[in-house]
Amino acid sequence: MPTQYGALHLLIKFSGSRNPVSRRTGASTEDVTADEAQAELGRYKAKIEEAGATKEAFAKYATERSDCGSYKQGGDLGVFGPGDMQKQFEEGTASTPVGGMSGIILSDSGYHIIFRYL
Question: Residues with catalytic annotation?
Answer without folding.
Answer: 9, 68, 86, 109, 112
